[in-house]
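Input record (one chain):
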Amino acid sequence: MRVIVTVVEKITSEAHINIPDGLNQSAIKQHIVDCYNTGEMQTEMNIFQVDFESISARIVKEQSSILLGENHD
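The corresponding structure, as predicted from the sequence alone:
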């Protein structure tokens, strides 16, 4: 029997970036999003906490059972 197990985890990461002086709150948010989207921040991220959210399993039926319901006369 084959089972597909899905684990959902919440990962908390921390990154240290430099933000130009004089930006308002909206510009700071945009700067952070831009750093993340360009991949600039991604390489600096350090995972320091992983919280377990959920786990589930789905049984994968054998090839022959996939054909059930079809007429093969």
